[in-house]
What we know:
Blueprint (H helix, E strand, L loop, with lengths): L6 H22 L1 H8 L6 H4 L1 H24 L1 H12 L1 H8 L3 H29 L5 H30 L4 H19 L18 H11 L1 H30 L4 H29 L2 H20 L3 H28 L6 H30 L1 H22 L6
Helix pairs in contact: 1-7, 1-8, 1-9, 2-11, 4-5, 4-7, 4-15, 5-7, 5-9, 6-7, 6-9, 7-8, 8-9, 8-12, 8-14, 10-11, 10-15, 11-12, 11-13, 11-14, 11-15, 11-16, 12-14, 13-14, 13-16, 15-16
Amino acid sequence: MTESLDWRRITHLVIINVFVGGMVGIERTVLPLLAEVEFGIASKTAVLAFIATFGITKAGVNFFAGALSERVGRKRLLVAGWLTGIPVPLILIWAPSWSWILFANILLGVNQALTWSMTVVMKVDLATPRTFGLVIGWNEFAGYTGMAATAALTGVLATSFGLRPAPFVLGIAMALIGLALALAAEDTKPPANQTTGAPPISMGEALARGTWTDRRLASASLAGLVTNLKDGALWGLLPLLLAARGLSVAEVGLIVGTYPLVWAGSQLVFGPLSDRIGRRILIWSGLVTQGLGVSLFTVSESLPLYMIAALIVGTGTGMVYPVLLAFVSDNSAIHWRASALGVYRLWRDSGYAVGALGAGFIADQIGVDGALSVTAVVLVLACALFSLAAPKTHS
């Protein structure tokens, strides 16, 4: 029953995650263009290295964040994440070389891992198994709404005032507000009536279960990795594809912002829906939908078609993102659930690095269209593997 939830605390965490997502959004339109225009980087692999740096850092910190929060508390890690994020927009404004951009993305990876992980874990602490999809859906909606809004707004700012510094000034305000909200948040713990008295399992055991020994958790890790593989490819290549086809920076920002906006809004539907109809059907159908949307980007030649492609990819991503988190929560015991979520997020966010480096390399060989086509095929193959590997389950 949703009326038993502590909506005051949940709402506070939802608001925090708007600013968490906004910190990533400041990069999504502008940074790939900045690489080519201001730093003269022609290699797609080199351009996408900033996403790989972000993804590797975020994935690694995710793994430790879940287990560490069981020992030191959720709020401490949430605040630490925001402190790490404050220098990011400042570095992006004044970076004299691309290596400084890469360093900023290491800090951004730590920021996102700690803040986003803790908003998920803290909401799960405040939820019941029957409402995991609902509260996680709201969490992800907030984060990707923030991302979409800043991606679109930075495109407008860049068109009017240039690629630097105006788009990144927005990030300074978001980091400071996010830190203030985190300091005001109340810490959470797993509900006493759900605890078993068992100690948290070791990180090694959690990693093994989430990677190979538990088919449910391993299949979720695969689906999450491929979903973010796609996002890493689109993050780096889509602005370049659209700019090469003659769209303005504002139009690029509109399309790049529409994708996470639809992703955000659709999670409010699919998260709670998975509580009612089960997780599996939404996960495999979402993977296929993402593949169709990515394919449409490669053949589109007009702004309306690009917008439709963004809508399809966003819907497919919204079908899987909160549902996979709920799926992992369903299939892990309360005393090691935070660790299970950490392992899942380790593999999911490794997809950023795999997608960025893989798509960048393929784009250098056969072009951006070819790299996105390969990405679409990988999504469909992942759907087939998930359908075979994941036993039927419901919360």
